[in-house]
């Protein structure tokens, strides 16, 4: 295939191509997970779904017609979910951080994403959802407080945060402002 044919393959030229796309490996729940995530985040949508064919069955072991990948978008960031089988599992080495301006927003994301998730994985604003994906539900003000040049203030906030599962903005602010 030469360069002049490359642009013809997809026919449509997108205005913006995201250079890096998070690619999430699920056992067999890619479509369910994508559909779940787009119900949690307001500015989101499911895109194209591809399916396994006969080709490669001896390698992937997936029945023809089974969902292979699901493209989805959350807050203008594109993701791909793959049904790759039980070979790999998610762990806390990778997480998605959701920045929240209010306690109400923080509570909303915490409640939605932690539903049926691993309750033992909830610490310091981190949670693991029902698919095993790790999330950090973080108030934007926390970032400002822990980056404060006054180390005493920032360390009080850090100490308060380390005692929490779901973060509480009022308690963090009180720790910051304490004389």
List the helices and strands and how they pair.
Layout: H1 3-10, E1 23-26, H2 30-40, E2 44-51, H3 57-60, E3 67-74, E4 77-83, E5 95-100, H4 103-114, E6 118-123, E7 126-128, E8 134-139, H5 140-146, H6 151-162, H7 169-177
Parallel strand pairs: 1-4, 5-8
Antiparallel strand pairs: 2-3, 3-4, 6-7, 7-8
Helix pairs in contact: 6-7
Please explain how this structure is put together.
There is one protein chain. With 179 residues, this protein is of the alpha/beta class. The protein folds into two domains: 16-83, Signal recognition particle alu RNA binding heterodimer, srp9/1 (2-Layer Sandwich); 95-177, 2,3-Dihydroxybiphenyl 1,2-Dioxygenase, domain 1 (Roll), CATH 3.10.180.10. It is built from seven helices and eight strands, in the order αβαβαβββαβββααα. The protein has helices spanning 3-10, 30-40, 57-60, 103-114, 140-146, 151-162, 169-177; strands at residues 23-26, 44-51, 67-74, 77-83, 95-100, 118-123, 126-128, 134-139. The strands form two sheets. It has a four-stranded mixed beta sheet with strand order 1-4-3-2, covered by helices on one side. The chain has a four-stranded mixed beta sheet with strand order 5-8-7-6. Helix 6 packs antiparallel against helix 7 (169-177). The longest helix is centred in the middle third of the chain and has 12 residues, at 103-114. It starts with a helix and ends with a helix. The model has no long low-confidence stretch (mean pLDDT 93).
């Amino acid at each position: 295939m030469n360069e002049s044919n490359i642009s013809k393959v997809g026919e449509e030229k997108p205005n913006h191509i995201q250079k890096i796309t998070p690619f999430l490996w699920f056992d067999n729940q890619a479509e369910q997970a994508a559909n779940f995530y787009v119900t949690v985040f307001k500015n989101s949508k499911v895109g194209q779904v591809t399916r396994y064919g006969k080709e490669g069955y001896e390698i992937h072991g997936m029945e023809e017609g089974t969902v292979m990948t699901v493209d989805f978008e959350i807050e203008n960031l594109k993701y791909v979910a793959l049904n790759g089988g039980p070979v790999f599992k998610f762990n806390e080495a990778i997480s998605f951080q959701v920045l929240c301006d209010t306690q109400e927003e923080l509570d909303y994301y915490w409640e939605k994403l932690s539903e049926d998730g691993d309750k033992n994985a909830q610490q310091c604003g981190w949670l693991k959802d029902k698919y095993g994906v790790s999330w950090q539900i973080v108030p934007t003000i926390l970032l400002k407080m822990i980056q404060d040049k006054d180390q005493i203030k920032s360390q009080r906030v850090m100490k308060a945060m380390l005692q929490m599962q779901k973060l509480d903005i009022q308690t963090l602010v009180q720790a910051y402002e304490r004389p």
